[in-house]
Amino acid sequence: MRIATWNINSVRLRIEMVLHFLEAYEPDVLCLQETKVVKDLFPASAFHERGYPHLAVAGIKGYNGVATISRIPLEQTETLTWCGRDDARHIAVRLANGPEIHNLYVPSGGDTPDPSTNEKFAHKLAFVEELTSWLPEAVHTAKADNREVILVGDMNIAPLENDVWSHKQMLGIVSHTPVEVEALNALQRAGAMVDASRHFVPAQEKLYSWWSYRARDWAASDRGRRLDHIWVTPGLSERLTGHGIVRDARGWAPKPSDHVPVWVDFD
DNA sequence: ATGGTGGTCCTACCA
Fold first, then answer.
1. At the topology level of CATH, where does A2-266 sit?
2. Rg of the Cα trace of chain A?
């Protein structure tokens, strides 16, 4: 089984790119973030026609939005809300006789890493903290139901030194500040979850899933960050058989997303 | 310290 996550930055603008990814990589489940479209306008038929009849979609006009697209039947789907905002950042599904999958889009957090002056940064921290309070019980409930848990998405935080191009230069930049990294680590610990990409790639090696649109030449400067993550409960980590980050997708013409797909395989 | 690009939708706002 293959599961993939991708911040697509408008699913309607880049639908051809998504379909190309499905054809080339054949994931069983694809989790999209920043779909930027309401549920009624989501391009569901394009996925139905390509063998993905099972969709769970949450969206608002113009912003955010998450969608989980599956070849495997979904037993249950649920949209979750955090910080009292119904802003389409979290959708959960249960695969038939399979794991529970949480598809997340964590707030970006604005420019200034100070929760007292930047409301967006405060929201980002509160969002991750609310997840941290919720996750232990969610994992417990899934386990009681004999299910493993997968948590994927654009977490907008690069936790390890080699998840950014320059640890030293990024310490004060939103996405790699110590307070965010600690919040993300606390969330991971709360679920006792394993970072599936780093299960394969040692912490000493650089690993990125996002490159800014603002670079003159993203590939030459290679100032990337690993913002997109796949976490699994320990029972699933034993069954991981492969992974990939599709760096090439950052160059897919004519207008790529600034994020690329991240995927893992399970036995 | 500044400005660099791209998305939605039409005026800024978000990334």
1. Deoxyribonuclease I; Chain A (3.60.10)
2. 17
- A 10 A CB-CB count for A169 gives 11
User: What residue has token string 């949209």?
Assistant: A79
Closest by CA position to A174, among listed A256, A244, A118, A223: A118
Q: Phi and psi for A117 in degrees, rounded to 5?
A: -115, -20
Q: Tell me the CA–C1' distance in angstroms for A50 and B7.
A: 26
Instruction: Phi first, then psi: give them for residue A100, nearest 5 degrees.
Output: -95, 135
Question: A213 CA, B3 C1': separation in Å?
Answer: 13
- Å between CA of A101 and C1' of B13: 31
Strand B contact nucleotides, protein CB < 7 Å = 3-9, 14-15
Residue position matching structure tokens 């030459």 = A220
pLDDT digit string (tens) for A43-74? Answer: 999 999 999 999 999 999 999 999 999 999 99
